Amino acid sequence: MQALLLSVSLAVILCYLWYASLIKKRQSAIDSLIVLNQKIDARLLLLTQLSNVSQQYQPLDAEQTAQWQQLHQLSAKSVWSQQIDQYLPQVLMIWSDMDSLQKMLFSNLHGDELNEQQVNEYLQLELDYQNASEFYNQAVTDLNQGVKMFPGSVVAKLAKGAAMPLLVVATE
Question: pTM of this prediction?
Fold first, then answer.
């Protein structure tokens, strides 16, 4: 009887530790989503400022105007509620598209007229976004592996935990 009680107690402790590990991995992924959201928004704001300066010297062509319109439409749809829900995959896809558009629009700016400090700040934000996306994908990969493996699969079902989607980086 004592052996059974000890075994059950040990199993409960191990399940709790596994659960705590899954929660920690999930929270790391959520924290990196918050950073990604901040970085993509900050990049858009700075890119808009840089573009306004650049347009004084050379106006946008039709393709660039269309890209800006698409970027603003995506930005309106990119609001993330800081909750993991069914809309997260769409938000991640929107962020990936916004990242790609921002890179294209930045490459079309005329650097001679731009403030060097703002350009460096933009490039740092782009690098920060890439690092945060890599961190997010690693955290999600760790979480998803923990959710799929035994006993994590059992613990995740009991705790109603689920796998999270990866952020697919758009290729240019």
Answer: 0.85
